[in-house]
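anyone else get weird line breaks when pasting these?? whatever heres mine. first is seq + tokens for prot A
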Amino acid sequence: MAFENLSDKLQNVFRQLRSKGKLTEKDVKDAMREVKLALLEADVNYKIVKQFVNKVNERAVGAEVMGSLTPGQQVIKIVNEELVELMGSAQSKLTFSNKPPTIYMMVGLQGAGKTTTSGKLAGLLRKQGKNPLLVACDVYRPAAIKQLQVVGNNYNIPVFDMGDKVSPVEIAKQAVIEAQKNRNDVILIDTAGRLHINEELMEELQNIKAAVKPQEILLVVDAMTGQDAVTVADSFNSQLGVDGIILTKLDGDARGGAALSVRSVTGKPIKYIGMGEKMEDLEPFYPDRMASRILGMGDVLSLIEKAQQNYDEKQAAEMAEKMRNNDFNLEDFLDQMQQIKKMGPLKDLLGMIPGMSQFNLNDVEVNPKDMAHIEAIIQSMTKEERQDPSILNGPRKKRIANGSGRTIAEVNRLLKQFEEMKKMMKQMNMMGKMAKGKKGRFKIPGMFR
């Protein structure tokens, strides 16, 4: 999970601060020393760490904290504000040309995920009502053109190519003519990368830039390379001039140093972050939401957006009604599980809920295989069995176990867990009704006799 190590360490520091009624200057400095070490371990640029800690320290030992009734909370508030500032203050959106087509030039080193990201971004733009065209300008890497065609096909986006014998500059120029002819209002040019920055690469990119005058040059960098990603970004920006950065593979980077350093070093905003393999896993970057996640405060807005993308509103309302009436069956359970799966790993979703950081989410790992086994068991039942599990006798369970490739014990375990969940939902409904009837004054049966 992104920033996992940093988040754990910072939250531990802040727990200690909250436990103190009144802070001394020494308390703040000790805390800032821990924050500094946590940031350095997260592979954040040393100069940026020094500046960040100095700014926080300066504000934290001032009157706004020492005179506060909740000094620990005030320090956390300051750290949050400075983290947001560090990552760019506000979301930076793509800009569009007044005269279509809008051209985006995708640049970066080989292996950063440039081709896949080009396809994902094209897919997201099409969802916004655009008509994108992908352009294959990497004529050097074996099968690069084929890879872009496969990506384009996956997202149903047309790909323009002229083979690998034509110069990338000529391909880019012809692509603009093709886009105008076919009314494509957005062009994404997938350029060549190298394993390292060299003069030949930069000269070619500068020539493409001069030929088609892109609206924005978007640099794709691999977040998992840490400080190397920041160095690459700085070099591309100084030699080519970039307008925005897309950080890929952030979901696999437990440190997160690149995300915290790249904007300060280059002065260029992070526009998108890659958080997985699917198109919707390319997310707009919100500095305030990311700071909130890092500090364990959750990210409700992103959670709501994920739910809206994956849930059908009418279906959700029907499901809520079934839960209220305790009419929830295994068919509904399977449907809910499949919907949640679309939203991403459960651990990441829980991390977006405020207050969940106090629990150890490292233990919350749902093995995708376990979910697949549950799906197989339910799908091996008849419709009648899913809607009324009480009819499941020995022979039926044996048939379901054989059909799903699981054991009878696993079938029994699933049925037991489902019944326990239904009981819990019934109790919650009862408590809700009692609360309504007694205007907020209710007690749980069996307690406070």
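and prot B, same format (seq, then tokens)
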Amino acid sequence: MTAKRNTLRRSRRDSVVAGVCGGLGAFFGISPFWFRLAFLIALIPGGIPGLVPYIVLWVVIPKE
């Protein structure tokens, strides 16, 4: 038996800005809403704590 390996990719179907949260949601098997909420909460204290990780993930994670 071969197990399908779930790879981390930015989503084209479930994309709001760059598909990062959609890709993370698909990879971990949960709703992308929770990742979007986490990035939004991280943006509240001044933007940098939420914006920098999102941009890094945008650059590092390949598009599907």
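btw re prot B: The CA atoms of residues 38 and 62 lie 21 Å apart. The chain has a mean pLDDT of 83.
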